[in-house]
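Input chain follows. Return structure tokens only.
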Amino acid sequence: MRLNHPFLLRRTLLSFLLLIAPMLGAAALLPTSLQAAGTRADDRPAIVQRQVFYDNLRVHSGQVIEGDVVVYQGNVTVEKEGAIHGDLIVYSGNVQIERGGVVSGNVTALSGNVTIDGAVGGSVTAWRGNVSLGGDAVVDGDISVVSGAISQARGSVVRGNVVRGPAVSIDLPPLPGLAAVASMPLAPKAQPPSAMEIFLGLIVRTLRALLLLGVAVGIGALLMLLRPAWVEQTRATLIERTPLSFAAGLIFNLFGLALIGLLWITVCFRPPAVLLGLALAALNLGGLAALGEEMGRRIEKAVNVRWNVPARTAVGIVVLGALIAFFWILGGCLSFFAYLIAVIVGSLGVGAILVQALRLGERAVPAPTSAAAQATPAPAPATSPAEPESSKATEPEETPAVQSLMSEPLEPVAPSRAAEETSSPEAVAHTAAASLPVEVDDFTQINGVGPVFDRRLKEAGILTFEELARRPAAEIAEIIQWPVGRVVRTQIIEQAQELAQRKKR
């Protein structure tokens, strides 16, 4: 078959060209790309990077290290035909360059000896150590020694100067990490708070102060409702022994805070620190209840009003807490006064609890002998009929006065008169009252009277609130060993009257 048709001929040529053209283009571009790749590989500069070592370094024969070498702690040895193409800096360790070893840069040793038998292309510097040059040593630069000696063997070559003394300039590389720290961006300066931020902070502090004050008032009123006797006894102890209570409470609070801080630093003991903190807070709130009751009584007396017991305690706590909250809300340097007042108030209450619980400062009072026991003589032992005459002789003789009294005739009492005396209403009432059990009240319910004063009053024969209310202030002051004015200010008589009326209801 012959391809003489023009259309078929053109189509065949076109297919041939389309097949050959890509192959020819690829063949033409391949040498150019290979040449360009070779040029880039040959012309690319070598990346020189400082190498850091923290242990001994030994450059073995035939080994080459490109770039500077820094050794922080360890010895450096360059063996024969070993090379370091850069500077060598050793902070703590010796340097030894054996015969045939090469260091193309400077050699610097801060703390260690330098021994050279090979070639050094730069200078040699030893800050605290000796420099020894062997017979084959070649140093192209200077040799500088600050604190040490230089020994040079015959045949060694030093093409620079030899310097001894402190006039040495050492260009040391920075420690690892310092460059990164230095390059870190500085933190921006804190901008002063705006007026809105100050106002919002004031609102937040006020809300926190009101919340804490509400908790303290609630706990104090609840304690006064549930345990009024305990609160009153604590308040009486606080009034009676104020300096001792403050000292004991201050020591206890400071020691407790120090112990909590020490436990909090140790992460494992944080749960006990939290428990101790809660216990310390509970003691301070209990003492605050007693102190608030005393403050409420004084406010009640000053404004001449009468409140019930929980309200009076709450008012006293609010007054004390408001003073602390005021300085704390203002913030800044005034916060110091808030903490100071809180420590003083808390120490008073906690100290009163400790003094009451441990009975600190109390002295043992000997029980007095009653007048009846002193006046009644001991009965004489009965004398048996069989006693000898000698025992009768030892009995004391009666005095003339006694004999005269005994010799006088006794006035006979008529039976009717004796019956009248025994049957009178007064005698019957006295006999009935003596036969009834004696009623004894608890004087510790009176504010200002503790267990010691309660015992003293009962030893003086005052057993009930009615009896105490009838006694004058001077007599009560003499019994409990208080000034009369303090008895009047504490209102012991008025409180006894009020308690006596409550008991009758």
